[in-house]
Amino acid sequence: MSDFSYAMLPGIEQEEMLWLQELTRGYSSENKQRFLALYQSRRKDPQMILICCLIGLVGAAGIQRFMLNQIAMGILYFVTFGFCMIGTIIDAVNHRRLAWEFNKKEALSCAALLGL
């Protein structure tokens, strides 16, 4: 398995790919495949976060927060209509950062789960 396998992840950016390569630097090829399979199932695509933010502008607000496992914030967004839409707009602008922070935690969780 080459390090270019991370490039096939949807919506991946250079910073995330470099971080994943650094995280899995000492892994064997088999361990990298196991890590990639687990990480791919947990990873959130930044475009999907943006779509959920845009849905929050016209419909139910807070879906993006539920997707990021921030249940309390999701309920708060839903009840307050996305903090009167201002919070939803801020999330839409920062969707890449939100996804990156979530994905970083999930990558560390996957590495710990696999015991690598």
TrEMBL record:
This is TM2 domain-containing protein. It is found in: Membrane. Pfam families: TM2 (PF05154). Residues 49-93 form the TM2 domain. One of its GO terms (cellular component) is membrane. It comes from Chitinophaga oryzae. It is a multi-pass membrane protein. Keywords: Membrane, Transmembrane, Transmembrane helix.
